[in-house]
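Page 37, continued from 36.
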């Protein structure tokens, strides 16, 4: 449960500008979905929030303090694939996260503390519907089950911020709908701040409190590769507390209060590419 402030952040690799002048406020407990064309820097942005990448200019603040420069237990992440360890069981994967947090130099805990952590891991696995599969290995699980395991692994340390990089992109629509229900429940129960990259606009609008579009669309086409992506739209979809929908469709065609830019269906469609 943490507020994030992004202030005029740039990311450049040599002459290549990936992200340009990003400006964004994320309130504690918000669920932000990020959409945008492939290669426009969405994963780079999550890596900034995780502490794996530093801005070349600008500042990132977590609860008013400079964002820590290294990943820590306050920030969990789930990728589209390969977030879990194949050689550990379901229970082992979740325990590893909690053991590393409790004793970084001594990865195994003993006695009462270990029993507490096992109980917490089992309870969380029960919540994501894996209570019957504690001793299976990831290869024995379906894609949907593996991603539910990855969520449990990321949440066991009770992070303040949960980062999701196209976590359900490889799943069938039916399975996706099931996991959406699980994610929504976990978000509401924990109050964690979520930032999720997705290719699926329907997913973005059905889950998030705010949908943020990354794009380079303001530049002339031949210049696009020279410039970085920036935030071209920032749309509040629903209230965090009440879950009430603000009917984002009605906002199209109006000026975006955040940027003063005109919103249009085509902009959203281009973000889905
Ligand atoms: N460590 C790096 N060094 C150089 N270029 C990088 C590095 N990481 C990412 N990039 C470049 O940054 C751009 C954005 O990549 P990425 O954040 O993965 O985009 P997205 O997730 O939106 O598809 C790409 O052009 C990629 O090649
Ligand atoms: Mg990516």
């Amino acid at each position: 449960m943490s507020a994030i402030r992004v202030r005029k952040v740039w990311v450049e690799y040599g002459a290549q500008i990936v992200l340009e002048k990003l400006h964004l406020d994320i309130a504690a407990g918000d669920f932000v979905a990020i959409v945008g064309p492939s290669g426009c820097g969405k994963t780079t942005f999550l890596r900034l929030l995780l502490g794996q990448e530093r801005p070349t200019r600008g500042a990132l603040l977590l609860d008013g303090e400079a964002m820590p420069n290294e990943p820590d237990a306050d920030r969990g992440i789930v990728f589209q694939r390969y977030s879990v360890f194949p050689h550990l069981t379901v229970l082992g994967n979740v325990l590893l996260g909690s053991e590393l947090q409790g004793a970084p130099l001594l990865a195994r805990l003993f006695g009462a503390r270990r029993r507490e952590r096992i109980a917490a891991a089992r309870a969380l696995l029960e919540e994501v519907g894996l209570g019957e599969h504690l001793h299976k290995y990831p290869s024995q699980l379906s894609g949907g089950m593996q991603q539910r395991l990855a969520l449990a692994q990321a949440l066991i340390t009770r992070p303040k911020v949960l980062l999701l990089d196209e976590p359900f992109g490889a799943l069938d629509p039916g399975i996706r709908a099931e996991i959406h229900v699980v994610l929504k429940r976990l978000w509401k129960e924990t109050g964690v701040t979520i930032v999720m990259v997705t290719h699926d606009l329907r997913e973005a609008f059905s889950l998030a409190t705010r949908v943020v579009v990354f794009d380079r669309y303001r530049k002339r086409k031949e210049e696009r590769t020279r410039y970085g992506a920036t935030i071209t739209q920032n749309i509040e979809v629903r209230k965090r507390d009440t879950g009430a929908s603000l009917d984002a469709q009605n906002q199209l065609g109006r000026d975006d209060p955040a940027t003063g830019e005109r919103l249009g269906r085509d902009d959203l469609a281009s973000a889905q590419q």
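Residues 4-74+159-271 form a domain with the Rossmann fold fold (CATH 3.40.50.300). Flag for discussion at group meeting. The beta strands are 4-13, 16-26, 31-35, 57-62, 65-66, 75-78, 161-165, 193-197, 210-215, 230-236.
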